Amino acid sequence: MFSFFERLTNPYPPVQPGQPPQGLVAFCRYYSAGMWPTLIIVSILSALIAILEVSLMGYLGQLVDWFAERDRETFIQEESASLIWMGAVVLILLPGSVMLHSMLVHQSLLGNYPMSIRWQAHRYLVRQSMSFFQNEFAGRVATKVMQTALSVRETVMKLLDLMVYIGVYFVSMLVLIFSTDWRLAMPLVVWFVAYIVILRALIPRLKKVSQRQADARSLMTGRIVDSYTNIMTVKLFSHSQREENYARDAMDGFLHTVYPQMRLVTVLKGCVWLSNSLLVFSMAALSIYLWMERIVTPGDIAVAVSLCLRLNGMSQWVMWEVSALFENIGTVQDGINTLSLPTEVKDKDNATDLVVSGGQISFDNVSFSYPGNAGNTIKVFDNLNIDIKAGEKVGLVGRSGAGKSTLVNLLLRFYDINGGAIRVDGQDISQVSQESLRKHISMVTQDTSLLHRSVRDNIIYGREDASHEDMLRAAQQAEAHEFIQRLSDHSGRNGYDAHVGERGVKLSGGQRQRIAIARVMLKDAPILILDEATSALDSEVEVAIQQCLNKIMQDKTVLAIAHRLSTIAQMDRLLVLDEGKVVEQGTHQELLAQNGIYAKLWAHQTGGFLGLE
User: Phi and psi for 79 in degrees, rounded to 5?
Assistant: First the structure.
């Protein structure tokens, strides 16, 4: 029975995620797709439960009048039909409605609804541009995904619950009391107006505070996660105290949003209690007066007073629900500012898959700049032209800031160029899908980062359908098999099943890089990018790895960023970049003969590294 309701809503909608709308209502509606049928049924059941609860109060008044007026001997015979109906409402209809309502809320919505939002938001964010993640804490983004998902669910469900349940309940109360005597309804009308005024005056302030609080909370979480992620750097530089102060500053910022919130809550609670007390007092006094004037019956008084007492308790619930509603609205609004940012690098609507026949790469009049301070732009390339033949091995050399890494990032289309075109085998990379482009490019970076998963998962990340034998072969070629067999983790997993820690922190730099090289070997893409691929290895291992790299570079187009002689000396051609331009190119010997920038860098070389001017 439970599984039936759990399957009514899909926590993983298959539709491809697009940019969420930035308006609050549109944002909530966008992420509620697929949930509306269940939400509407829940609202109908809420209305039914409200009507049945109020009808029970009417039965209470009717019972009081019966006890005062009816003959005990003939009571059952005279009122049997009414008593059977009341019993059916109490024992069957009301519990059944509550049970069905609970099933839909707890089994169909509370779990699946926010998971659907997280799933869609995560799928959109992993397709975000690199610049998005460079400008945000990873922990802050993750917190906003988690918080916003829950807040959208609470906003939509509370809003429907309040609008339907409270609206139907209050209208039913007024109808019931008006049907007894219109004068008894007057205190309720006055109370309702006062209650709305109180909420209207204080709740919007809670919304503003809550929005600031949501941002402060995500900032606090982001700073704490940042400290944990970089714990080695923190300990290496003995900056525990600095990190404490860094986190405390964010915690203080969060705490200073909590204090105003709590003050508003105290004022709100006091005002609601005062209005409730005045309602109960005025209703009791009016009932006594009308009873003394023989205008109302004891049953009418029982109905009016019991409804007021019920309203007294319910108003406290409404107050907290409305407060929570606006808190969640503030959190959703804060989440929109992150989750609805447009993707800077997008596939074209008619993007095709890249087809690589040889791996020729060309930069045709490429211009690129990135935003600087005060709205200025910093130009990196201006009409850059580079042609790399299929299967050619090209090394990129230059001082820091010359544009080497930027050139690679543009080839991978982490950023869109401002002008010109980058082509692979004659195909403009802006016209093909990013997934297909990067599928045909392998890269080994200097700062290798591994996934917090098993060694096996990290290597097979290069090719998901690889067999166990393929994985072992790649690890052996990368000189990684021997040390992998000795690995273990705190959960007792060994060898290829051992987890490597966040970003591979449990491994040495050389071990991480060898696993990364094994992953690239397994991928076996036709275009290979090496960014200081052997920089983290000792000399003995470097020789072995270099032999492996020589093997995988065969029949591939290679673009290598390097200062190490072991890498650049073997390249077919070297390109020297300076201030975003190719100022020299040729073989190692040809560039030495030119006695230019490359020759000067070579002259400053020490211990296998190129000095920088």
Answer: -115, 20
Contact between 360 and 386 under an 8 Å Cβ cutoff? The reply is no
Question: What sign has the CA pseudo-torsion 86, 87, 90, 94?
Answer: negative
Which is nearest to 583 in space by CA: 598, 568, 563, 572?
598
Q: Are 29 and 338 in contact (CB under 8 A)?
A: no
For the stretch 18-70, pLDDT in tens is: 889 988 889 999 999 889 999 999 988 988 888 887 777 777 666 776 766 66
Of residues 187, 8, 22, the one with CA closest to residue 111: 8
Name the nearest CA neighbour of 566 among 519, 605, 514, 513. 605
Q: Compute the half-sphere exposure of residue 325: CA atoms within 13 Å on the CB side of its CA.
A: 18
User: Exposed/middle/buried for 251, CB within 10 Å: 0-12, 13-18, 19+?
Assistant: middle
Q: How is residue 244 written in tokens?
A: 């404490």
| Chain center to CA of 301 | 54
The model carries a pTM of: 0.70
CA torsion through residues 17, 20, 21, 23, sign: positive
**586 beta partners:** 574
Tokens (6 digits) for 505: 């922190």
Task: Locate 386 and state its tokens.
Answer: 């580079």
d(CA 495, CA 179): 79
Q: What contacts 43, CB < 8 A, 6 or more positions away?
A: 160, 161, 164
**3-class DSSP assignment, residue 518:** helix
Which pairs count as long-range contacts for 282-291, CB under 8 Å and 24+ apart, including other chains? Answer: 282/187, 282/190, 283/184, 283/187, 283/188, 283/308, 284/308, 286/183, 286/184, 286/186, 286/187, 287/184, 290/181, 290/183, 290/184
pLDDT digits (tens, 9 = 90+) for 543-588: 766 777 777 788 889 998 876 655 676 788 999 888 888 898 988 8
Q: Round to whole Å and give the CA distance between 67 and 58.
A: 14
**d(Cα 568, Cα 362) in Å, to the nearest integer?**
20
Rg (CA), the chain: 35
Distance CA 536, CA 144 (A): 36
| Residues 323 and 268 sit within 8 Å (Cβ to Cβ) | yes
Dihedral in degrees, nearest 10, Cα atoms 521, 525, 529, 532:
0
- Asked if 180 contacts 287 with a C-beta cutoff of 8 angstroms, the reply is no
Contact between 361 and 526 (Cβ < 8 Å): no
Question: Could you tell me the strand order of the sheet in which 361-371 lies?
Answer: 377-388, 361-371, 419-424, 427-428
**Residues 599 and 397 sit within 8 Å (Cβ to Cβ):** no
| Domains defined for the chain, CATH in brackets | 2-339 (1.20.1560.10)
